[in-house]
Specification:
The protein has one domain. By secondary structure, the protein is mainly alpha-helical. The strands form two sheets. The protein has a two-stranded antiparallel sheet with strand order 1-2. The chain has a two-stranded antiparallel ribbon with strand order 3-4. The chain is globular and about 75 Å long. α3 runs parallel beside α8. Helix content is 68%, strand content 4%.
Length: 385
């Protein structure tokens, strides 16, 4: 595919992204107060308008034969990536609650988590693009994987989250390699104890956030490849969604549990994208068994190489946007009852908030019985607590 990304666009976009992150880090270092709901709404709106402005810039200002098509591909990819990030937010909330991360330090974890995610997503996208250019059949493998993942999300109980993070595979993996101090040391990721440099619980949470993003990237990046094979569009749609993740967390942290129809809607979106990616293979199979009439019914698009089975980008954008709007709207109209584990998690958050606003020195609950205890045992202690 002819990419719209020129060296100037790649360089300019990357420089702007890291400049924004640097400014964000500078401002955050001057004020450790937690982000308010009002500020989160403001920043979420800013990032949404930035993404829309970027799409409009591609559509109206970029002098390229694919500019209008690329703008719609960007919006579809951005919608998919942004909506899939809700699952990330759910995991972040569980981690912050289970490890009793003070609210004024949560933004620091999310900042460095987003910084790492930008780098990791870039690596995954470039690797995925290179693989698809060399081995085009992998597009069908990605499609089949998305169909499988989507069906799991749609089936009730097929992809339930465990409210106890001590049993979470990401947490268990991280605790095999990290030794942690049993108390927080302000917003520091490392501390000295008896002359030994140890990680703080805040660093363990950061590692779990990064590992969780790697897991979620395995779903989200192939999903965007199902919309477009242009690496610049895949990259920019991912980065815009990631940059708005932190403000979205503080905006929705109290309402995530109520979006009960969003996950099935995401499952249908992933299934749709997966089927879209495998239409070429389906058409070839139908032709081989002599069902040309069925092939003629498949949607087609015109490419420089001729006509091929696929779903036009405007149609894909409308379907993805419609499904996500339905999932959010249905969740708001018919909110479900909270699970017992959810209520328990919220009670933990309430306890933390109350402790943070007392006049007495706050000591966080121990995550380990001994400072140099392996973190595999720490998770066990946290589970018992």
């Amino acid at each position: 595919m002819d990419s719209i990304g020129t060296p100037v666009l790649w360089t300019g976009f990357t420089v702007i992204v890291f400049a924004v992150l640097a400014i964000d880090l500078f401002l955050a270092s001057r004020d450790d107060k937690p982000m308010t709901r009002r500020a989160a709404l403001g920043w979420t709106t800013v990032w949404l308008f930035c993404a829309l402005g970027f799409a409009l810039g591609i559509y109206g200002l970029l002098d390229h034969a694919r500019s209008r098509e690329a703008a719609m591909e960007f919006l579809a990819g951005y919608l998919i990536e942004y909506s899939l990030s809700v699952d990330n937010l759910f995991v972040f909330l569980l981690l912050f609650s289970a490890f009793k991360v003070p609210q004024q330090y949560q933004h620091r974890v999310l900042f460095w988590g987003i910084f790492g995610a930008v780098l990791l997503r870039a690596i995954f996208i470039f690797a995925g693009t290179a693989l698809l250019q060399q081995f085009h059949f992998l597009i069908y493998v990605f499609g089949a994987f998305l169909v499988f993942t989507g069906i799991k999300l749609v089936i009730p109980g097929g992809d339930d989250e465990d409210d106890d993070v001590s049993d979470n595979k990401v947490v268990l993996f991280a605790t095999r390699f990290i030794r942690v101090h049993d108390h927080y040391d302000g917003d520091r990721f490392f501390t000295m104890h008896n002359g030994v440099r140890l990680a703080t619980p805040l660093f363990l949470v950061l590692v779990c956030v990064e590992l969780s993003d790697v897991v979620f990237a395995l779903d989200s990046i192939p999903a965007v490849f199902g919309v477009t094979l242009d690496p610049f569009i895949v990259y920019t749609s991912n980065i815009f969604a990631i940059l708005g993740l932190r403000s979205l967390f503080f905006l929705l942290s109290g309402a995530l549990w109520g979006l009960r129809f969003l996950k099935p809607a995401l499952g249908i979106v992933l299934t749709f994208v997966g089927v879209k990616m495998t239409l070429g293979l389906l058409a070839a199979g139908l032709e081989r068994v002599g069902l040309q009439a069925a092939v003629d019914w498949l949607p087609r698009i015109t490419t420089p190489h001729g006509s091929e089975p696929s779903v036009p980008t405007p149609v894909s954008l409308a379907i993805v946007g419609g499904l996500l709007a339905f999932g959010v709207g249905a969740s708001l109209l018919f909110p479900g009852q909270k699970k017992a584990g959810v209520v328990a998690t919220e009670e933990v958050k309430t306890d933390v908030d109350e402790a943070l606003h007392t006049d007495h020195p706050h000591t966080h609950r121990s995550l380990a019985r001994h400072v140099e205890q392996p973190l595999g045992d720490v998770v066990g202690d946290a589970k018992q607590g």
